[in-house]
Amino acid sequence: MEHAWSALLGGVLIGLAAALHLFAQGRIAGISGLLGESLRAPLADGGVRLSFLGGLVSVGIAAALVLDHATTNAVAPLGVVVVGGLLVGFGTRRGNGCTSGHGVCGIARFSRRSIVATGIFMATAALTVFLTHHVFTSGGFR
Amino acid sequence: MTVAPSTIPTGLVASPALARNVAGFLSGVLFAVGLVVSGMTRPDNVIGFLDVAGDWNPSLAFVMGGAIPVYAIAYRLSRRRSAPLLVPAFDLPTRTRLDGDLVSGAAIFGIGWGLVGLCPGPAVVGAGSGLVTALVFVAAMLVGMAVEQRLPRRGTV
Q1: In which band, very low, low, confident or very high, does the pLDDT at B1 lie, cut at 50, 70 and 90?
Q2: Number of folded domains in chain B?
Q3: What ipTM does the predicted assembly reach?
Q4: Looking at CA atoms only, how far is residue B1 from chain A in angstroms?
């Protein structure tokens, strides 16, 4: 359980980041929304969405330079990664949110829509992992 | 020339374009540091949490257990303010009705999340790290978003 404390600390930092976005910009820190709206109109909102996304990418660059956390990452074959990406992109826009907007911000606001959405995506994700790791075990998943 | 107090907007900064983008960037940095520290940028951690029938890894529960109370307190405090610091007004979701798009969208998102172990935030951070999986995933995710945004909304059920 040595990872429990770092998970909790990371969660607190995520909560603080979302809180900063709320107090500064008056908006939910939902990553799928930031991405989707940036696709629709990149410079609407004065470029703030792109600045937020630039912060995410910058930390990714820094982490690759400092942490070497890059090698243990892939759990699925590349073809599955493409399908997964398509489904995540489509689903988060249709459902108006992902793990951040619904799972953190929405639940913390006691939003009924977010509580239902989080329950549903947790359930279908767990079912998917059950099928790929315990039923169809020859699919190349790790 | 002096500005009468009554003309100062409710927000903290009168001309906030740069301040807004700096604050947005810092929010993104803090958010991503949280994702990296928590281990959520590692798909194997996420799959371990979702694999309830296997060797269950509870770390995502701790991440949400850290993030949700902090944001819940911040949200309640923010309700006392008439406006955010850098923009004239709060712009938060107001819908409360459950509808078919919410249900089907969340279900589809979960399938993709379970297949790869990446959701949008960690995927963007991983793409910044130059991980092939994350780069391919983000490209496909943007295509999925663009497709969805071109389709008509089904509306409420």
Answers
A1: very low
A2: 2
A3: 0.94
A4: 28
Domain that holds residue B146: 95-157
Domain ranges of chain A: 2-135
Instruction: Tell me what percent of the residues of chain A surpass a pLDDT of 90.
Output: 81
In this structure, what token pair is assigned to residue A64? 């690759």
Interchain CB distance below 8 Å, B21 and A47: yes
B4 inside domain:
no
- Report the half-sphere exposure of A97 (CA within 13 A, side-chain side): 26
- Count of pairs with CB atoms under 8 A, one residue in A, one in B: 485
Whether B47 and B67 share a structural domain: yes
* B115 and B86 inside one domain: no
CB A92 within 8 A of CB A21: no
Listed residues B73, B92, B111: the one ending a domain: B92
- A71-119: per-residue pLDDT in tens? 456 788 999 999 999 999 999 999 999 999 999 999 999 999 999 999 9
Residue of B nearest to A85 (CA): B141
Sequence-separated (6 or more) residues with CB below 8 Å from residue B150: none
**Predicted TM-score of the model (pTM):** 0.92
- Whole-number Å distance between alpha carbons of B12 and B53: 51
Q: Are residues B52 and B121 in the same domain?
A: no
Contact B148 A89 (CB under 8 A): yes
- pLDDT tier, B157 (very low <50, low <70, confident <90, very high otherwise): very low
Contacts of B76 in chain A (CB under 8 A): none
pLDDT at B10 over 60: no
Q: Rounded distance, CA B83 to CA B87, Å?
A: 7
